[in-house]
Amino acid sequence: KQEVTQIPAALSVPEGENLVLNCSFTDSAIYNLQWFRQDPGKGLTSLLLIQSSQREQTSGRLNASLDKSSGRSTLYIAASQPGDSATYLCAVTLGDNNDMRFGAGTRLTVKP
Amino acid sequence: GAGVSQTPSNKVTEKGKYVELRCDPISGHTALYWYRQSLGQGPEFLIYFQGTGAADDSGLPNDRFFAVRPEGSVSTLKIQRTERGDSAVYLCASSEGRGNYEQFFGPGTRLTVL
Predict the structure, then answer these.
(1) Dihedral, CA atoms, B73, A103, A59, B102, nearest 10 degrees?
(2) What angle (nearest 5°) sits at the alpha carbon of residue A31, between those of residues A18 and A66?
(3) Is the pLDDT assigned to residue A64 strictly greater than 70?
(4) Cα distance between residue A87 and residue A42, in whole Å
């Protein structure tokens, strides 16, 4: 059974810091890995999607890497801002049905 | 174009009651997914539709839960004899098809069972 783990569970940093969020998964047979942002009481906003054949994706201040063989992904956020405060979820997509398995998330707080 | 929409946004019910949650996927998306998210946890897969048929319902927790998608577009998640443990946010997502397609999520329905 695919297990997805995110470390740390919570992170608090001062504004301007660069930071890394970690995601690990137990079964490397994935189609893709996706990072989402979730604000309190809201749905999921897709940030980056990495196909299984790719090593990384970048969007603005965000960079996500994927090492499928070791079952790991990182989300790098450069020059963090208070508006980045949210919960960040990673999810892997499995099999032909496109089923997704999520981690529990990292709750990020960026202090002004 | 419009994204995935879900109604109601909030639903409060009493233990033992029946509830229906609705999902309107992105137009043209043939795949539709339901997830449940408990407080402090990531979403958990419930059921997947490809067109009108439930291709994978392995995530439904018990037979009180079932979902339909009669015309291959709108889907309804139905919960019978609700229990307090059913309280969660129910998320719907849709994608272009089966296989390696990005899923787009709705805002969710927050269900509270008193």
Answers:
(1) -20
(2) 25
(3) yes
(4) 10
Q: Do A49 and B45 touch (CB under 8 A)?
A: no
A contacts of B40 (beta carbons < 8 Å): 104
Across the interface, whether the CB atoms of B100 and A93 are under 8 A apart is answered yes
pLDDT > 70: percent of chain B: 98
Cα dihedral across residues A27, A32, A38, A43: positive or negative:
negative
Mutation for B interface: A57, A66, A93, A98, most B CBs within 10 A: A98
- Note the pLDDT tens digit of each residue in A68-92: 999 999 999 999 999 999 999 999 9
A98 contacts in B (CB within 8 Å)? Answer: 31, 33, 48, 95, 98-101, 103
What tokens were used for B18? 């029946």
Residue to mutate among B33, B92, B94, B103, with most A CBs inside 10 A, is B103
Closest-CA residue to A9 (of A22, A19, A24): A22
A38: closest CA among A105, A108, A86, A101? A86
Mean pLDDT of A52-73: 95
